[in-house]
């Protein structure tokens, strides 16, 4: 009998692995439904859905390894990073999925960011100058964008590579119409040195200030949540270091 591995677990969702099967349990049925629908529509390799009975989803493991993890070294050749970029571009060029994006509008996002920045400073979580500088950088991301088919949570640990080929992309619960540059920023968070390799495969000019803006914005918004859910954003190479790199 294979051991049960807890991949991630907190109050909103949990993912377990038993052999080659992943079992995802999510308190938000809409996230599970979106994940199943997105994997069916996405023009990139995805896990096979074994069964789906809310609040649980069973999928197969995908072959290969990731290009690294947040807080750890980035791995893989420039060609492997370029292959990831090409796969992400293929997703972004696909027809939009027929459901609304899960993200907030610009006004709501700006209000949430400002409230979070105030909380981080007032409660002594981060120094005021660090928060102020990154709030300035984050402003570049707060602009209108043309919606694309986005993954929505494209962490580096969600893309698997074998050699220089993408073998699977997992974690589709936040998928929907969104900002393509948010996906690129999420994938390279903490691995800024590999952005050029990724964009070589992505194959089109992007606004680097917007990507930097999303790095700061995403990090500011999640520091407190991560701390409250058993994760450490202060670990080397993680979100707080991302914020410090903008100073």
Structure in a nutshell:
The chain has eight helices and ten strands. Strands 1-2-3-5-4 form a five-stranded antiparallel beta sheet. A three-stranded antiparallel beta sheet has the order 6-8-9, with helices on one face. A two-stranded antiparallel ribbon has the order 7-10.
Protein model, in words:
The protein is an alpha+beta fold and 247 residues long. The chain has a single domain, classed as Aminoglycoside 3'-phosphotransferase, Chain: A, domain 2. It is 40% helix and 18% strand. It has eight helices and ten strands. The strands form three sheets. Strands 1-2-3-5-4 form a five-stranded antiparallel β-sheet. It has a three-stranded antiparallel β-sheet with strand order 6-8-9, with helices on one face. A hairpin with a 2-residue loop joins strand 8 (159-162) and strand 9. The protein is globular, with a radius of gyration of 18 Å. The protein starts with a strand and ends with a helix. The mean pLDDT is 93.
């Amino acid at each position: 009998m294979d051991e049960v591995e807890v991949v991630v677990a907190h109050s909103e969702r949990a993912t377990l692995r038993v052999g080659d099967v992943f079992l995802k349990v999510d308190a938000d049925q809409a996230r599970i439904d979106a994940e199943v629908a997105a994997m069916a529509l996405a023009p990139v390799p995805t896990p096979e859905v074994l069964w789906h009975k809310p609040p649980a989803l069973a999928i197969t493991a995908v072959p290969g390894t990731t290009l690294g993890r947040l807080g750890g070294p980035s791995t893989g050749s420039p060609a492997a990073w370029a292959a990831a970029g090409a796969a992400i571009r293929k997703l972004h060029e696909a027809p939009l999925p027929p459901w609304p994006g899960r993200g907030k509008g610009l006004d709501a996002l700006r209000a949430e960011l400002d409230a979070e920045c105030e909380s981080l400073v007032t409660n002594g979580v981060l120094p005021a100058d660090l928060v102020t500088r990154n709030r300035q950088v984050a402003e570049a991301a707060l602009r209108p964008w043309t919606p694309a088919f986005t993954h929505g949570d494209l962490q580096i640990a969600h893309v698997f590579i074998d050699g220089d080929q993408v073998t699977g992309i997992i974690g589709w619960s936040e998928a929907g119409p969104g900002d393509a540059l948010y996906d690129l920023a999420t994938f390279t968070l903490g691995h800024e040195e590999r952005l050029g390799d990724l964009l070589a495969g992505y194959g089109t000019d992007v606004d680097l200030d917007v990507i930097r803006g999303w790095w700061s914005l995403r990090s500011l918004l999640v520091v407190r949540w991560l701390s409250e859910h058993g994760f450490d954003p202060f670990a080397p190479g993680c979100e707080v270091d991302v914020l410090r790199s903008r100073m």
